[in-house]
Amino acid sequence: VVAAGATGTLVVPATLAAGKYPFYCSFHPNMQGTLVVTGKGGDAPEPPKFEQALRTPEVLTGGHISIRMKQAKVRIMPNGPRTSMWTYGGTFPGPTIKRPTGSTTKVTFVNDLPQGSGSITVHQHGGHQSSADDGQPTRFLIERGSRRTYTYPLTDAGEPMPAAFRFYHDHRMGLTARNNWYGLQGMFLVTDPAERELGLPRGAYDVPLHLTDRSLDDENQLTDPFPGPHMHDWLTGAHAPPNDATVGKRILVNGQFAPYLTVRPGKYRLRLLNASTFSAYNLELSNGRPLIQVGTGSALLPRKVERSDILLGPAQRADVVVDFSGLRGKNVLLSTVPRNDGSHGTGSRSAAIMQFRVRGNAHPSPPVPDLLRPVPALDVPDEVAKVWTFGLTKDHHGSFWSINGEMFDPKRVDHQVGQGDTERWRLRNTSDMTHYVHLHEEQWRTISRDGKRPPPWERGFEDTWRLDPGEYVDVAATFTDYPGLFMVHCHMLDHEDHGMMARFEVIAPGAERDLD
Ligand code: C2O
Ligand code: CU
């Protein structure tokens, strides 16, 4: 920790091998540099040892699921004490909910968390459900000792929704970052039997990976890097925005530090979820093989896209196929590497995340088809109905993250839209840090990025967009089925907690609008 105006000295091993070593401020990961070591000799930094086999969270498939939220000890590190966390059902991440599209799914969450956790609210990220079932930050809460049942129809306008890779997580006002850090996260898969004919890897060859990062103390217990939830806790002081970046020192996969997975030669479908509080990961395979992206997490893409690396910010997902054919006996790393797209936006972590050990006999895996799932046509208005501007605002009280210059206020409604209408919205970033902006509730599509056609991997349904400094993205959706209040926010959870959230209201036909 270097005090303002002071100079810090970092002791680096004198035996570092020649090469480039990215470094960054762990409070402000957008402050980055590169240490270049020249000359001969030295050792390359050691990758982690990959000592534990990857766990798969329990999969729940019933029509009415019950999940008890409770404190539990979880094995994050391969050695030493287990880590005490707040969990869904005793594990981190919680059980994976897996349901066929179009089948109504009820999930009862029971709050048995310890004192100090307070009331909880659960959001199915990317879902389409009534306002009361959407995980409102200040209403329909689950108090300690009580329970609440959420209903997820998994339909939109009477039709089954596309198959998707989503997650569920806490959404409590001012405490979302803390509650997620302590463990209230789980994966949610919606399947579609019609996907079968595409021949994508399935069963044991379809592996959901929940990626996140956490800092642990010497006893393997979670640190508590958060200021309190009240405005006076965070508007000023060391954690005041933009200094509220919670970055964990260790990257975890399905809740484990540096796991390995034994795979067979052939293709695997990896569902990659960045569930971190703040960090972006730029994912690639150490052997240079491509990631064949088939989906966004909200749905399959219309066409597959071959990518050398995939940048995912908080809450973003990528559904990819990787090929381990011909690699028997080899080990392949999944790593995050520094962002290399030439953008001056916030960068990504640099670390080896997990290891694949390719062993055994090849399994048959057909090629990935070029055409996957078309996005249905939509008549998108030319006119932008609402601009949401993401920025940093300072006033005499302190500094906060803002949308259209304002801090989130649970008493305010920021935009109203008629049920059944289709609107084009513009998301724009006027701050000098990248944000990852999430829109609740509808099946959103990307119309343009900075006035141009979006890249091929943004041509499907989407719910969370990267907005680099100065960028703007146009999106559109039809507001079907549910009147009521829904969220717009940055999914960097510190930003969400520190003001960068707003709400829109869907107004039923014939009901009155009272905003203007
Ligand atoms: Cu993933 Cu409003 O949340
Ligand atoms: Cu943000």
What keyword list fits this structure?
mainly beta; 516 residues; 7-stranded mixed beta sheet; globular; binds CU-O-CU linkage; 6-stranded mixed beta sheet
Characterise this structure:
With 516 residues, the protein is mainly beta. The termini are far apart. 46% of the residues are buried. Helix content is 3%, strand content 41%. The longest helix is centred in the middle third of the chain and has 6 residues, at 176-181. Strands 17-16-15-19-24-21-22 form a seven-stranded mixed β-sheet, with no helix packed on it. The protein has a six-stranded mixed β-sheet with strand order 3-18-26-25-20-23, with no helix packed on it. A six-stranded mixed β-sheet has the order 28-27-30-35-32-33, with no helix packed on it. Bound molecules: CU-O-CU linkage (C2O) and copper (II) ion.
Task: Walk me through the topology.
Layout: E1 19-24, E2 32-37, E3 52-53, E4 59-60, E5 64-74, E6 83-88, E7 94-100, E8 105-112, E9 122-125, E10 147-152, E11 155-156, E12 159-160, E13 164-170, H1 176-181, E14 185-191, E15 206-214, H2 231-234, E16 250-253, E17 256-257, E18 259-263, E19 267-274, E20 281-285, E21 291-295, E22 300-307, E23 310-312, E24 317-323, E25 331-336, E26 351-358, E27 384-395, E28 398-403, E29 415-418, E30 422-429, E31 435-439, E32 444-449, E33 461-462, E34 464-467, E35 472-478, E36 484-490, H3 493-497, E37 501-507
Parallel strand pairs: 3-18, 4-7, 5-8, 7-14, 15-19, 18-26, 27-30, 29-37
Antiparallel strand pairs: 1-2, 5-6, 8-10, 9-13, 11-12, 13-14, 15-16, 16-17, 19-24, 20-23, 20-25, 21-22, 21-24, 25-26, 27-28, 30-35, 31-34, 31-36, 32-33, 32-35, 36-37
Copper (II) ion binds at residues 435, 490, 492, 495, 500.
